Structure formats: C-alpha cells, structure tokens
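Internal tracking record. Fields below are filled automatically when a chain is submitted to the structure queue. Please do not edit lines marked as system-generated. If the sequence contains nonstandard residues, flag them in the REMARKS field before resubmitting.
Queue: standard
Priority: normal
Entity type: single polypeptide chain
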Amino acid sequence: MVLLRFAPSPTGALHLGGLRTALYNHLFAKKHGGKWILRIEDTDAARYVPTAVDGIRNALAWAGLPYDFGPGMDGPHGPYFQSERLDLYHSYTRRLLESGHAYRCFCSPDKLAATREKLARTGSNATYDKSCLHLTEEEVARRVRAGEKSIVRLNDDNLPDRSSPTDIVFGILRDAHASLPTDPVLLKSDLFPTYHLASVVDDHEMDITHVLRGEEWLPSLPLHPRSVFMSGPQASSRNGDVSVLDFMRRGWEPESVINWLALAGWGVHHENGRASPPGTPSTQPPDSTTLMTASRTQSINLDLSSLTHRRNVLDPAKLAYLNKHHLMRSWQSEQGIAFQARRVHDVVKAAFPHSPYTNVEYITRVISVLQGRITNLHDVPTLAPFFFVELDYELPEAHSMKRGISADDYGKSRTVNHVLRRVILQLESSSPSTQADIAVFLHDACEKTGLKSKVFMTALRHALSGMKAGPSLPEIIDVLGTERTAQRLKLALSAHKTSDSK
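SYSTEM-GENERATED OUTPUT FOLLOWS
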C-alpha cells in the first residue's frame, strides 16, 4: 500500500508551503488508494512552540485535508510524536555504533568552531577533522563512564555504494554527498536525535513508500533516500502573509486557497532524464486559474512529473480571482448566502459595534446586493459601510461626488435640495416595495425634477451612500427600506442646507 507522511516541526504556525506539501501528500495517497500520516517532528526542544501542534491540526482541518493516522487518529504506526519514540532512535544509534557506521564525538562547541575555521583557512570543504573517529574503544568507554558529554556522528568513510537516484519531479539526481557537513550529527548531547536520524528511522519503521518534500532538501538526499522533491512556492512574499493562520483570519475561502495551491507550479511537461514508455497517455494539467470545487480538487489526477523545476511565486491576484468566483458559486442559493452571512457576522459586528443593523438576516440582504463586488468576505464592511451606519458627508469621497455635478446644475433653481425634497415626498406617499417598483419610482421622480438622469442619480447616490461605486439605487433603497431611506434623505437635506449657508 502507498503510505506517505507529512512531518512538520511544531516550531510555529503552518505556512503555505507546508500546506501545499500536505495537500500533495493527500492527493497522491488518494490517487493511489493509499493513506497518509501526520507525524510531529518535535525533537528540537529549544524551538518548540506549545500551541503549534493544535495550530497545524486546525489548519489542516480548515483546508479540508484529513489525515489517516496521527495525533488524535491512532493507527498501527504510532506514536506520532518523535519525542515519544526516543527509545527507538537510541536503539538504532547503538546498532550504528556497533557496526562502525557511527562514532562518538567528545569535542566541545569551542573546539568544533576552531576546527571549522582552521579547515576553512586551508581551503578545505570539510567541516570536521574526524579527530574522535580515531579514539580507541577503551578511551570512548572511559570517557562515557566519566560522564563526558558526547554526540554521535555518522561515519561517512563507511558509506555503501549507491547508484544515482531518480526523483519523480527532478529525474536523475547527482550525488550531493560532497555538499553535506563532514560526518553529520545523528544524536545530540541531550540524547535527542537530529532530523537526519529520526526522519529516516521513522520512514523505515512506518513503512513509508513515498516522501514529498521541498526542493531545499535536495542537498541532503544521501541522508534521506526516499524523497520526492517539489519546487516550493514563495507565497505572498510582497506582504509577508505566508502563514495559513493569516489567510484564515483574513477571510479567504479554504476551497480557494487549496485551489490556488493545487495549481501552483503545475503544467510543465518534461521527461526527467528518461524516455516515457510507448503509448503513455499525456495528463493535461488544468489552467492555473481553473475553478475547482473541494470535491473536484480531491479527485485531481495529480501528476508529480508535471510539476515545475523552478521555484514559483504564488500570485495573490490569482487567489483573489479564485476566491471571488468560489464565493459567487456559493451564492447561487439563498441557503448559500445565509451561510456566508453567518460566517461574516462577527466581522461586521466588530466593524460597527454600535450599529443596530448587524443581525444575520440583514447581512444576508446586504450580501445579496453586493455579490459581484465581493472578492473576500471580509470586504463587506468596507464595500458598503452606509448599510450599517449613518453617513458622514464631510468624507473626501462624498465631497468629490458633490464636486462632480456642474455649477449650473447646482444652481439655485435646480438644487440638490429640490431632488431630495421630491424623492422624500414621493417615498412617503407611495412606499414602493420591490426593486422593480423602486426603479419606476425613481424614473418618475427624475422626470418631475426636470434634471438630467445623471445629475439626479448622482445627487441621490451622494445622499444615500456617499460613495461613487456600489449597488444600484433601487438595491440600496430596497435594503435600507423606505422609512430609513426617507430619514437618510432628510439628514442629507439638512447637511446640504448647512453647507449652502456657509
């Protein structure tokens, strides 16, 4: 059975690159009828963040990526925290020491630093002089009994011959052993393993068949022979929002983020240094802005050989496009609009804490007239604040709208006051109840003022919203209601009279 693992370190919030790796593990496992594990690599006590594991699990749950085994999902491969598997690492360390594939090093940090500097001055690429490799068994035993601190190093003089490995993404890889530190550390002096020991032991013991990881691990290939390397995304590098938690807090749709990540760097055809078998079908990857539902994303025929070799930058504009269209799809039913209204309810209340117009039913009506303008659900308060609070006609945009009407049309014979009085009078006498009725009502009111339609509508929009862009006037009046619309027009009339008297 195909078995993969996603193995983050709990040193902080999960970032988009990690979420993309988890996504590809999930998709690859589903494609091949396999499973995947969430394994927590918590052997770096100095960098451990107590809340990080819950944050990782919450991010995966938000993204709709349920793992098969891991914390809270016991299975045959546990425990799933490396800090709970120390006895296993110690057992393998003993076997490596006994076979001569590893040795104890007693050098102090100061001595190691001095050795590195000395080797660098001579032009050597080595990072250690292997002095402790030549200690006798008796000397090592004596120093251990005396309580001297030591680490355990891999003996890279005693490595097996191995042909160049072939990676699914990058093809045939050259041996990068020369780029590794001399005799890498396997076990630290605190008896915790390094990543190089723990990850390989766990992959072996858990029967992991494939490892998907970022290309930054390519140089350590000789230490991690099962890896499949992916070019990692540099996500939103212009604003620094690379944490999944940032995207959750800022209101991005999980379907959109997963859609965005699934398509990042996908669609490159290359042979990876080997010929494809005759008759091999070509998998056509989707376009980078293809809109995919959660179910469609889950059923992607993921072809790792079509991933780019280059690091790819995630384009925030593509996320905005995908997010807007995922929202529009969710608004095709009244239930979908109501669901989104419930989601954004707390955001609206926080933006307008003293407004009486922040209940879910009212927000549902607001979303109904804002649908095509919303890119992110958290845009609702900024796109149409006039639905929730009364206007300040002294704001720059409201002033700009007023200046947009010519002086002649603002003359004493055809003032905005005339427009507002006419609409107030007709509203109080007719009270149109539908958007269609309101549109007819406004057309009739415009004709009775004798003003150009553009002037009439601009004056009315200025009074009702104070914003140049936004829903149509019938939509605004329909959401506000005729009574509140009349009240706002009276407020605007009063503000305009005050302005004229100055």
